Amino acid sequence: MSGRVQSHGGSGGRRGRGRQGVHGVSVHEVPVQEEGLGQANMAEHVGQAEAPGQAGQAAMGALAREMAGALRESMNILRVETQARENVVETRASFLTREFLWAKPEEFHGGPKPTKADEWLEQTVKTFEMLHIEDSELRVTLASYYLKGDAG
Fold first, then answer.
1. Residue 67 has pLDDT above 90, yes or no
2. Does residue 32 lie in a domain region?
3. Least C-beta-crowded within 10 Å: which of 8, 32, 116, 134?
4. For the chain, how many structural domains are there in total?
5. Could you tell me which of 91, 109, 94, 110 has the C-alpha nearest to residue 142?
6. In a domain, 149, yes or no
């Protein structure tokens, strides 16, 4: 046999033309798998392909290595882009912190009147909104900076 197993007629009582698979090859023609030529063994056979099956496996091995390299490169690009995004977020937080401190909101020293606390909080929230500070953690950090005395 020439590397393919051919089946005529088949089981199940089907008659006539066999079903056509990819590229017009009958689905009843199945390539025979060469023994001992797994991907682990391919490195020694690359460039020494003697039969069409070996050449195909060598090409598949080369394609697999190329795909792995492309995947590694993509992962590196993604890592760099993620780091750049994190730097932008950090830079934005630094910028907003500077702007908030430059706005010099009132300090809150505590006291017996809850209305003073409400007024201070309202002014602080307005400053956050004016500067478009939406990050809750950053808001808490910045507001707590202006809590002084018994309030801090």
1. yes
2. no
3. 8
4. 2
5. 94
6. yes
Q: How far apart are CA 128 and CA 137, in angstroms?
A: 12
Please state, in angstroms and rounded to a whole number, the distance separating the CA atoms of residues 44 and 58: 10
68 and 113 share one domain: no
In a domain, 57, yes or no: yes
Q: What is the SS3 string spanning the chain?
A: CCCEECCCCCCCCCCCCCCECHHHCECCCEECCCCCCCHHHHHHHCCCCCCHHHHHHHHHHHHHHHHHHHHHHHHHHHHHHHHHHHHHHHHHHHHHHHHHHHHCCCCECCCCCHHHHHHHHHHHHHHHHHCCCCCHHHHHHHHHHCECHHHC
Range of the domain at 127: 104-152
What span, in angstroms and rounded, lies between the C-alpha atoms of 148 and 2? 90
Q: What distance separates the 2 farthest-apart alpha carbons in the chain? A: 99
9 lies in some domain: no
Mean pLDDT of 72-99: 85
